[in-house]
Amino acid sequence: MASMFYEPSVEILKAANGTALRVCEVSREIKKKFPDLKWSGGDGPVRALLMSAAGNGTPIRMVPDSSPPRFYYSEADANTPSAKIKIPEASPEEIMEEAFCRADRALRDELLARVTKMEDTDFEVLVNNLISRMGFGRAETTQQSNDGGIDGYIYGDRLGLNVICVQAKRYDGHNVQRPAIAQFIGDLQGRDGVFVTSSGFSEGARELAENTHTNSKIALIDGEQLVGFMIEYNVGVQETGKTYTLKRIDTDYFDELG
Length: 258
Fold this sequence. Notes:
By secondary structure, the protein is of the alpha/beta class. The protein has helices at 6-15, 23-33, 44-55, 92-116, 120-136, 178-188, 203-210, 223-232, 251-257, and strands at residues 60-62, 73-75, 138-141, 152-155, 163-169, 192-197, 218-221. Helix 6 packs parallel to helix 7.
């Protein structure tokens, strides 16, 4: 099961240029950059892949250094045994960041599951509220019986001269395909638009949105991006009220004393 994630993981780790990446970060980048790759849920497949790569001597090594494992990218010399690769100790900051990363991933998964189970009309309202909250202007959800393929409008000015059309599709289990984008382009009639889905977009759908051959500009927001924006703009989520302040040694203070 993990084999399908090998090339995407390698590409992402190389692009990181030596920066330490955690399993959840690799998983998130895979979902973003490879939307057509079937995802089984959770980080298990990628975690298993990285652990295998770290142990079988592949040139690109993701070395586990804690439990649960974190992984680091390093170019491995063919004559360097795994045992001689230095594994850095986890700092308190890294441990807290790892815990935050796991909590954030759990929240995203739960939020996406709830969004996927919403009624279509409620999903449309949520999307319009979110885009308005993001600062693009006043949102208006169209009537279901007379929306002409447009689920909402975002008015960027009081006179309604700067209008963004919104299409919201709540899908569970399949991606938005090219024909849906083609229909949306026709409905826009030269205006700009945002197409939001709880799932993802096929490669053909993304290509068409980027090359509409019309005056319309189209932004695509998939399920992963949607819940990310919901968390960022506090739509459907709230803070727990707990704040943790991590402190470190003030070396300047002790140097001045000495």
